[in-house]
Structure formats: C-alpha cells, structure tokens
C-alpha cells in the first residue's frame, strides 16, 4: 500500500543548492522521509512512536 504523504517540509539543515531531506505525514499518522535528490517515490516510513524515538536518539547523540 502506498500512503499519500502531504505537506512535505525541508530540513532546516538543507544545502543551499536545494539538496535536502524532506519529511511529511500521512492521514494515518505515518511519517515519511525522502531524499530530494532521489526518486520521490522512495520513502522511508516510520510509525509516530518510532519517529519520536529516532528524533530523541539523534538529539541525544548531538549533545
């Protein structure tokens, strides 16, 4: 099943040339992540719980 992700947002850390990571959410709450340089149909999907856990781990590792 392909989810319909809406509201794609760029990372604040994107490159000036437009290369970036984009994040969006589907109606069922699934979080989608894609690379703007790649195939727009290739999307990593995370449950809201797993997305929150990933962000927490990234924040912890950058401290």
UniProtKB/TrEMBL annotation:
Pfam families: DUF397
Xref: InterPro entries: DUF397
Lineage top rank: taxon: Bacteria
Ranges of residues in domain DUF397: 7-59
Descriptive protein name: DUF397 domain-containing protein
UniProt source species: Thermomonospora curvata (strain ATCC 19995 / DSM 43183 / JCM 3096 / KCTC 9072 / NBRC 15933 / NCIMB 10081 / Henssen B9)
Organism phylogeny: Bacteria, Bacillati, Actinomycetota, Actinomycetes, Streptosporangiales
